[in-house]
């Protein structure tokens, strides 16, 4: 972890969620000096795990860029929104601003861009869903890349599947822009070759936590609480739904896994029925993952505090990043600072 008195670099954490990106960049020697997160429940979890003195912003659209401290790295897992690409020459003739002002106005990326434009950090680190590349027929990614280049940055991206770090298929795009002409190329980043399996994140007698017993996730022997097993009615509904979808030629339905499998992508909707990742059980209906298992599936350490309801925890981990992926990316990037 970072020595707070002698960090290798400073960074800000925008759209911080529950701090997955922060964990990765702190592990690489960075110090977070500003955080921004608008969701109350996510901020509750974040602040329970990161007792620090940096200032915290809420609504990024209302934060003046000059109120954010100067930093080496800007980190943002920003929401994906459509962009409109207007004719620059036409806008110029009409006296309307162009560049990122016209291309990104009305989107949250505009706020990221104006902060970059003002502070000119050495490196910008962005994370998003893989579909960012094809979103709006590719226009969204083209605007993001053009905006960063217009602001003086070299831009590089890579899609990484987290299955090499955790037992979950989870493809995300990572974009790194740098203005220090360091020749950063994410394709040079080597990934682990061994694929983990679910047994490594599931509750057992070998990984009992007192906090999980207190939260009602398991008993003192590591046995998962009964409330996570699907009811007969819900299990029948999910099976019938899968049959109907199959008859229509669709692939929609529940995902059933044993401890030697790699799971589907955990999403924020997991709290609804858990259907995307169900764990087989001997002689009974399958069960959902507990919030602690979701935390492990996202690469959060067992020391990470879960201080919200199951519903909020499922949403938060489903919306987060896989921490070991960020750690490896941050370690690679830190070499150039």
Kindly describe this structure.
- There is one protein chain.
- With 337 residues, the protein is an alpha/beta fold.
- The protein contains twelve helices and ten strands.
- The protein has helices spanning 20-27, 40-49, 88-93, 100-104, 108-119, 139-150, 210-214, 232-247, 270-273, 291-297, 310-319, 323-334; strands at residues 9-14, 30-36, 55-57, 73-76, 123-129, 154-161, 171-178, 256-257, 278-281, 284-288.
- Mean pLDDT is 89; it is low at 84-100.
- The strands form two sheets. It has a seven-stranded mixed beta sheet. Strands 8-9-10 form a three-stranded mixed beta sheet, with no helix packed on it.
- Helices cover 32% and strands 16% of the residues.
- The two termini are 17 Å apart.
- Helix 2 (40-49) links the parallel strand 2 and strand 3.
- Helix 1 crosses helix 12 (323-334).
Anisotropy-based shape = globular
Low-confidence stretches: 84-100
Largest sheet data: 7 strands, mixed
Biggest sheet strand order reads 3-2-1-4-5-7-6
Helicity level, as a percent range?
A: 25-40%
Strand content is 15-25%
Radius of gyration: 21 Å
Output the number of helix runs. Answer: 12
Determine the mean pLDDT. Answer: 89
Structural class: alpha/beta
State the end-to-end CA separation: 17 Å
- The counted number of beta strands is 10
What string, H for helix and E for strand, traces the elements in order? EHEHEEHHHEHEEHHEHEEHHH
């Amino acid at each position: 972890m970072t020595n707070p008195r002698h960090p290798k670099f400073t960074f800000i954490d925008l759209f911080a969620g529950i701090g997955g990106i922060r964990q990765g960049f702190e592990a690489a020697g960075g110090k977070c000096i500003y955080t921004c997160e608008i969701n109350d429940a996510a901020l509750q979890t974040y602040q329970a795990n990161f007792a620090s003195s940096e200032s915290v912003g809420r609504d990024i659209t209302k934060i003046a860029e000059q109120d954010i401290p100067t930093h080496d790295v800007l980190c943002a897992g920003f929401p994906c929104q459509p962009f409109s690409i207007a004719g620059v020459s036409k806008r110029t003739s009409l006296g309307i601003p162009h560049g990122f002002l016209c291309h990104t106005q009305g989107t949250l990326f505009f706020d990221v861009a104006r902060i970059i434009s003002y502070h000119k950090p050495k490196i910008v680190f962005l994370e998003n869903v893989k579909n960012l590349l094809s979103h709006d027929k590719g226009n969204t990614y083209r605007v993001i890349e053009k905006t960063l280049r217009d602001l003086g940055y070299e831009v590089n991206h890579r899609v990484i599947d987290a299955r090499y770090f955790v037992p979950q298929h989870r493809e995300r795009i990572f974009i790194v822009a740098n203005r220090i002409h360091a020749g950063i190329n994410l394709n040079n980043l080597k990934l682990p070759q061994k694929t983990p399996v679910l047994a490594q994140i599931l509750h057992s007698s070998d990984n009992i936590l007192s906090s999980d017993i207190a939260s009602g996730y398991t008993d003192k022997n590591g046995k998962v609480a009964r409330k996570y097993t699907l009811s007969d009615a819900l299990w029948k509904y999910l099976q019938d739904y899968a049959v109907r979808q199959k008859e229509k030629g669709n692939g929609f339905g529940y995902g059933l896994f044993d401890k030697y499998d790699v799971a589907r992508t955990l999403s924020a909707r997991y709290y609804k029925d858990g259907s995307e990742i169900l764990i087989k059980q001997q002689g009974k209906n399958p069960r959902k993952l507990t919030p602690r298992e979701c935390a492990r599936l996202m690469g959060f350490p067992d020391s990470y505090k879960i201080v919200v309801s199951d519903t909020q925890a499922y949403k938060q981990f489903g919306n987060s990043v896989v921490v070991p992926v960020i750690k490896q990316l941050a370690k690679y990037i830190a070499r150039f600072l």
